[in-house]
Design brief:
The protein has helices spanning 23-35, 44-55, 59-70, 78-93, 112-121, 141-152, 171-187, 203-207, 212-227, 252-258, 279-295, 311-321, and strands at residues 8-14, 99-105, 126-131, 160-163, 193-199, 234-239, 266-270, 300-304. The chain has 323 residues and is α/β, with parallel strands linked by helices. It has two domains: 8-167, Rossmann fold, CATH 3.40.50.1400; 171-304, Rossmann fold. Helix 6 links the parallel strand 3 (126-131) and strand 4 (160-163). The chain starts with 7 loop residues before the first strand and ends with a helix.
């Protein structure tokens, strides 16, 4: 059990978003994100040429159009404002326990370095860092760790710290996701198949020892178990394949294209690997992939939102923190 002290800081870390749905802002974000060696495991000189010659000149325009579809005119990027809102609710939930609670983004603002320095100014002596990635991956969780120690490596007086590397099978998290699905089914009867879609990664990472693939399968099986689903009522898929390398399978798009021909005409889609909704869930999964399924002969497609800033999510995060 984590024991709070008057000088304890809790940092929730998420991926980040561009500062605006414009090509220059998206290009800056993608440049920082895609240059991270944890994200793209290609020798730097080779990747520099590809990134600057083939990716950054073209991809920002397409990504900007996608961001514009989901951008809130007042609040901005869903990933950013939902992360801020759940952090504020968690801070309120933990009020009176002598805790400083804030959030940071691995790419973009507010940066991890900025928030750590703020903790230092506040006299924080004990640090708890929780990346909002339920399943550990070297491409996400480890990158947060790298960035944290890039800043802390410059400090003379280091705080004691606890780094929560994953919570893919934490009972509070599993129960919260399962309950969100139940609530969706109460509002409207469940469809024939529940698809649990996770962000894809190159297969090579699993061979190198990254546990992400196994964490995703464990998470999905636990959620299905909570819901009492048979093996025929749910399926795990992986989304957002990029490049020509073999990625984790089965691919989400290929599965959606094939299901109507197999007699499955109605599906529910949920993304348990995302703490809050973002470009990938709102534009790719909820919009683009729905079109893929319906064009293939599907009749009903429902996207079930992430936990976002719900009270259930706040309680789940408090449970993961052990507070």
């Amino acid at each position: 059990m984590f024991m709070a002290t008057p000088k304890t800081g809790i940092l929730l870390a998420n991926l980040g978003s561009p500062s605006a749905p414009t090509v220059p802002a998206v290009r800056r974000f993608l440049k920082e994100f895609l240059w991270d060696p944890r994200v793209v495991n290609i020798p730097r000189p080779v990747w520099w040429l590809i990134l600057h010659g083939a990716v950054l000149p073209f991809r920002p325009g397409k990504s900007t159009q996608a961001y514009q579809k989901i951008w809130d005119a007042e609040k901005g990027s869903p990933l950013t404002f939902l992360t801020r809102q759940v952090t504020e609710k968690l801070a309120a939930r933990l009020a009176g326990q002598g805790l400083q609670v804030t959030y940071a983004m691995r790419y973009g603002e507010p940066s991890i370095a900025t928030q750590l320095r703020q903790f230092k100014e506040q006299g924080v002596e004990q640090l708890v860092v929780l990346p909002l990635y339920p399943q550990y991956s070297s491409t996400t969780t480890a990158s947060v760790y790298d960035d944290m120690f890039k800043e802390l490596g410059q400090w003379r007086h280091l705080p004691s710290f606890r780094f929560i590397s994953d919570y893919h099978q934490h009972p509070a998290y599993i129960a919260a996701v399962a309950e969100s699905i139940r609530l969706a089914w109460q509002e409207q009867a469940k469809n024939e198949l529940l698809l649990m879609s996770f962000h894809g990664l190159p297969e090579q990472l699993t061979k190198w020892g990254d546990p992400y693939f196994h964490h995703c399968h464990k998470t999905a099986a636990l959620i299905a178990g909570q819901l009492g689903l048979s093996d025929q009522e749910w399926k795990i898929v992986f989304q957002s394949r990029f490049g020509k390398a073999q990625w984790l399978k089965p691919y989400c798009v290929d599965t959606l294209e094939a299901l109507p021909g197999q007699g499955i005409k109605t599906v529910d889609m949920v993304c348990p690997g995302f703490a809050v909704d973002c470009l990938e869930t709102l534009e790719e999964i909820a919009m683009e992939n729905k079109h893929v399924f319906m064009a293939a002969g599907g009749e009903a497609y429902r996207y079930i939102a992430c936990l976002n800033d719900s009270d259930a999510h706040v309680e789940a995060l408090a449970g993961v923190l052990g507070i």
